Fold these 2 entries.
Entry 1:
Amino acid sequence: MKRTMLSGNEAIARGAFEAGVKVASAYPGTPSTEILENIARYSTIDASWAPNEKVALEVGIGASFGGGRALVAMKHVGVNVAADPLFTLSYTGVRGGLVLVTADDPELHSSQNEQDNRNYAKFAKIPMFEPSDSQEALDFTRLALEVSERFDTPVMLRTTTRISHSKSVVEPSEPAAGPSTAGCIEKNPAKFVMLPGNARKRHTVVEERLRSMEEWACHQSFNRIEVGEGKVGVITSGVSYLYAKEILPDADILKLGLVYPLPKQLIRDFASRYDTLYVIEELDPFIEEQVRALGIAVHGKDLLPICGELTPARLNKALTAKDVQNYFVPSEPLPNRPPNMCPGCPHRSIFYSLNRLKAFVTGDIGCYTLGFMEPLSAMDTCICMGASIGNATGMTKVLDPEEARRVVAVIGDSTFLHTGINGLMDMVYNKSTATVLILDNRITAMTGRQENPGSGYTLMGEETTRIDLEALCRSVGVKHVTVIDPYDIEHTRNVIKTEMQRPEVSVVIARRPCMLVKRDPVKRQPSLAVDADKCTGCRACLQLGCPAIEWQPDAGDKGKAVINPLLCCGCGLCSQMCHFDAIGVRHEG
Amino acid sequence: MKDKVTNILISGVGGQGILLASEVLSEVLMLAGYDVKKSEIHGMAQRGGSVVSHIRYGAKVFSSIIPEGQGDILLGFELLETYRYLPLLRQGAKVVANDLKILPPPVTLGREKYPENIPQKIRQAFPDTLVMDGLAVASRAGNPRTANIALLGALSTALPIETSYWHETLQKMVPERFLEVNIKAFDLGRQTAASQI
């Protein structure tokens, strides 16, 4: 077929299509999100957003047990959420092939940690493929599904940000010919009911499976040797293979497509040919430790960084101890450009209010984590999806009642439905006094605006039941649920203040769609402008940290604010901040 | 030419259309028969943050990240973000810079200063520099939001690719109702750059 440029994520979606996958489920998370968005374009696959990664995997398991092929996708930390079913799925094995894509994020481009999920393969005793480019991402997705059925095991496919989001040339194939019949019920309790008596027997099956795969993997083309000058040997995989080719173009390379289980005999044979052997891998010494356990001396993390992603420059420095010689470096310090909430973001006034109210904010994962940034500076913790609510409960238990009133949990709509609701049940059940703020912008925004159970639409674009957040909170026993419009700063601040004082659980739902949601009837309003004659340079509007408001230090005596009409979408927050009535609708000319 | 890998960087502020520009560029290079790789970061970094996209092409490309100090061409959508990524370039590299300042939060808050005279500083280090007012060119084309494509037009003068590939790719990637204005912006950007060489 015709050559095409695909990202790793697009290629995985294509691979799932070609392999005849029936069901795909995921929770969005950078850098994995586009896998399901692209799968949703193939009409042969039922693609859906699950409320969280655990549910996504359980849906995939159900599809597999019904006899269909399934793919589930998540970011690295999502596998922590899905780990419970994953470890036992390893014991049951599959009926239809099942592949779990874990998209890791070395360098934490958009994550709260940089855990190396290759460790999950070893921990859960599940084979793991690791592609080096988009063509391999497609090929390995197909391969993973075949291997899953052949060895009766779930298979993991691990990408990293530079694989997920890099585009490279791919030659797609036609979908595999084969039975694409509907699933059917087939009872097999000894295999699918993991009570101790059955599970004990399945554990021995798992160990035997790994042994046979290890031997099999020594003779497969995805684990290949590339012959160079024969002086230096390199064992590598994934994106690190590309960097090894850049920096050591003459080395002999054992490129591993399957990073677990390792082909031990192949590694022994390869290693025996070289005096100098490197294991080149990002993050943990995952391959290195297993190679060392074979009694083979290698260089690895004695030279390479364990933190952050590898790059050609970092690899070169590690191997040659030489820094890059930059031709030009600016001689002055450059101002940073941190990410910021968009102009018109409904989260802005919330964090402004929390800042003014001197709240201690237990935070969560989403765009609103940017409430941490100056000048809003109103997020004090961020651990994982859903953590804000439990964290708030725990804090209030150790503070005296006056201090405890300052504790507010802030969580987005999608994150609340992901794992926040459990924390709220605990709050009610165990009589917490903290306040919960649900920022309901009607979308999963940070990952690029995906639907969720509160948005009223499915991944495939169909209308569906919208979960009623107020009713949900009330149903678990919250007596005080208030809905506010965060575009009204004064009301927002007053409501939060009142609820913080209340000595029992209360939930405030701040409802206003994300400015970037196209479907909602929220239109950009005419942009606003600062009347330079009225502006006194008091800087009150700057406290919002809106990217559309710029400061002109040389205007007037003290400087003046000016609004960038290309960025401003007329939300009106700044005009509410202005004490001098200096901000109004822009008059053309 | 096809033996050597050429390294292009596109930098700017999240939301300026860097993603579309780099998509168009890599598609064009693929159509022209090259091996191409492209890499950038999505997600959090895009929310008004500093963004850089790497595009590499040649007979065979391995790493999608450009080795530091080996950039051949930098297309900057904003002056500070052009200045910031100059250390990635080799001596004698070509720079196409959009003559636009977007003040970052530390500057709008009055805590840090936006560097002065960036175009002159770039030219001093890289004589083969073109500074173009992309917004003005895009406005002449009929829509200020096509500045990214106008700048791509300027960049195209530095690449050995026929115009037909560019038009074909824009047709494929730009929604139909915006196609005409984008092609016009591309052509105007290309002409503007050609007339300044």
Note: Strands of chain B lie at 6-13, 35-39, 50-58, 71-76, 89-98, 129-132.
Entry 2:
Amino acid sequence: MHDDDAMNELLRETLAGDVPQLSPAFDAHVMQRLRPRRLAATDRVVMAAYSLAAVGTAAWLMQDLPIVWIVAALVIAAPIAAGVSAYGRRLAFGG
Amino acid sequence: MYTDHADAWLVEKCCESADDDAFAEIVRRYQRPVFRLVVSILGQQFAPDAEDVTQDVMVRVHHSLGSFRGEAKLGSWIYRIAFNTALNDKARVRYQAPHLGEETLAATASTDRGPHEELQDNRRRRAVLACIEDLPEVYQSALRLHYWLDTSVADIAVMLDAPENTVKSYLHRARQLLHSMLAQRGFDAR
């Protein structure tokens, strides 16, 4: 037998074996991974209550402060909150 | 849905209107060849990880679809992402599980020979599998696609984005290299 034919045969024998198959729901799993994750109804209520309480407390604490300080606090806090939120989304969706 | 539309139309739909159904159609079209390509790169011992890696490929394709310029075919672009992703993941998976699985050898062992011949065959198979791991990645992938996954040269050429004659020469060169690597270890192909 020619060397190349013998190697051909040896490779067929050695690499013979079960061929792995993709699971039938593969495409559904991928689409699920890409879908934005939504909070459950209870979690949304908790988040809304927390946001209202946070805004209320901040307003109560800042009521006696000069308007310049309030604007400065907003200017500093808003970009930080947006950055943290974007970072969190990137972590969650692997973008 | 969308099964009759061309790839370019699907890409446009995904990019312009974030159409999930269009991307789902792209996944359905390419999931099997991408999976085969990933399996061929990971090899037999890491095949159980192939589905997760294929999912990572599809997620990466989704995130990068905006940068697809349409200069190459969508399939070639996806296969290139699959090849690179699988190579990176193989390095990571190999680091976590560096030993060759015994079941891989047991699954291919012949049982109708004497114990001495069987032992000799097992040694030779182990040597062949070890030598394949030392070949350049593109040769390994071509060999596994052809001999294990029974993929035609034409289909391998599409997956590896190379002309058919180049794939034939990959296979020929890989056999030659294996022959000399086995000879160095004291085995021959016969």
Note: DSSP finds nine helices and no strands in chain B.
